[in-house]
């Protein structure tokens, strides 16, 4: 079955280190997204991509970057991890062509910055 | 600006009783509306969506939701709650306007607790 996988599922890192969270989907979806989930804030959009070589900033993009070199992958990089980036990160994907398409989520990556 | 409100942080219901999780939205045009469920330490699972047509939408696990345009609401319902329905529920909206393809705006989430 097609799916969306994230790795690592859990990570502890130190302040100032660069961290990359991987996201891989096998649906061949053009649209991919990264959200973070924090208590009291729900899910907030970090970055998104509508296709290869396309990336866009979401509402909380500061300190994060993404790249889209192929359809299947959208890695999220924290350039210099900060304690404020301790969160749960969700990757998601959807088909394009219509805003009515369902967005499907991965299982999440729990990141702790100490 | 688009927004979604889930006015209740937690909803408690006895098993076998009907449940309602409330959601109201604000968008500039006609919305696409979604409900997701999240179990502990898991990702979000899609339950149902309203795109167009019948205002009553049926989804997974016996859930349904009613779209009410005049009240800008999209409440999630289930006729008979199960203990296994206990989870965190998110309402989300996507504007149909161009330039917004794919981006969802989420509510804060409502914890549903179903007691035996």
Question: Your description of this structure?
Answer:
The complex is a heterodimer of chains A (114) and B (116). Chain A has strands at residues 4-7, 10-13, 19-25, 31-38, 42-51, 54-57, 64-66, 76-78, 87-94, 104-105, 109-113. Chain A is mostly beta strands. Chain B has 116 residues and is an all-beta fold. In chain B, the strands form three sheets. In chain B, strands 2, 5, 6, 10, 11 and 12 form a six-stranded mixed sheet that branches. Chain B has strands spanning 3-5, 10-14, 19-21, 24-26, 31-38, 44-50, 56-58, 64-68, 73-78, 87-95, 105-106, 110-115. Classes of the chains: A mainly beta (114), B mainly beta (116).
- The H-and-E topology of chain A, N to C, reads as EEEEEEEEEEE
Q: Note the run of SSEs of chain B as H and E.
A: EEEEEEEEEEEE
Strand content of chain A: over 45%
N-to-C CA distance of chain A: 37 Å
- Largest beta sheet of chain B, briefly? 6 strands, mixed
Structural class of chain A: mainly beta
Overall body shape of chain B: globular
Strand percentage of chain B lies at over 45%
How would a textbook summarize the main sheet of chain A?
7 strands, mixed
Share of helical residues of chain A: under 10%
Span between N and C termini of chain B? 41 Å
What characteristic shape of chain A results from the CA principal axes?
globular
Q: What's the gyration radius of chain A in Å?
A: 13 Å
Q: Which two chains have the most extensive interface, and how many residues on each?
A: A-B, 27 and 25 residues
List the quaternary state of the chains. heterodimer
Uncertain segments of chain A:
none
Question: Would you tell me the overall average pLDDT of chain A?
Answer: 92
SSE blueprint and pairings:
The complex is a heterodimer of chains A (114) and B (116).
Chain A lengths: L3 E4 L2 E4 L5 E7 L5 E8 L3 E10 L2 E4 L6 E3 L9 E3 L8 E8 L9 E2 L3 E5 L1
Parallel strand pairs in A: 2-11
Antiparallel strand pairs in A: 1-3, 3-8, 4-5, 4-9, 5-6, 7-8, 9-10, 9-11
Chain B lengths: L2 E3 L4 E5 L4 E3 L2 E3 L4 E8 L5 E7 L5 E3 L5 E5 L4 E6 L8 E9 L9 E2 L3 E6 L1
Parallel strand pairs in B: 2-12
Antiparallel strand pairs in B: 1-4, 3-9, 5-6, 5-10, 7-8, 8-9, 10-11, 10-12
């Amino acid at each position: 079955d097609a799916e969306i996988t994230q790795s690592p599922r859990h990570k502890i890192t130190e302040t100032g280190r660069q961290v990359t969270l991987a996201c891989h989907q096998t649906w061949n979806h053009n649209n991919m997204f990264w959200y973070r989930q924090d208590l009291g804030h729900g899910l907030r959009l970090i970055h998104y991509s509508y296709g290869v070589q396309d990336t866009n900033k979401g509402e909380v993009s500061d300190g994060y970057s993404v790249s889209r070199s192929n359809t299947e992958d959208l890695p999220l990089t924290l350039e210099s991890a900060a304690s404020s980036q301790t969160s749960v990160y969700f990757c998601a994907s959807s088909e394009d062509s219509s805003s009515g398409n369902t967005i499907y989520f991965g299982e999440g990556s729990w990141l702790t910055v100490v | 600006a688009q927004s979604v409100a889930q006015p209740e942080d937690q909803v408690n219901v006895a098993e076998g009783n009907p449940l309602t999780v409330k959601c109201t939205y604000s968008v500039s045009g006609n919305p696409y509306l979604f409900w997701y469920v999240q179990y502990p330490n898991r990702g979000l699972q899609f339950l149902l969506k309203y795109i167009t047509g019948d205002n009553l939408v049926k989804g997974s696990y016996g859930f349904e939701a009613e779209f009410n345009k005049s009240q800008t609401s999209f409440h999630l319902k289930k006729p008979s709650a199960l203990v296994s329905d206990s989870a965190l529920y998110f309402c989300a909206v996507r504007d149909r306007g161009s330039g917004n393809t794919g981006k969802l705006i989420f509510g804060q989430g409502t914890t549903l607790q179903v007691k035996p």
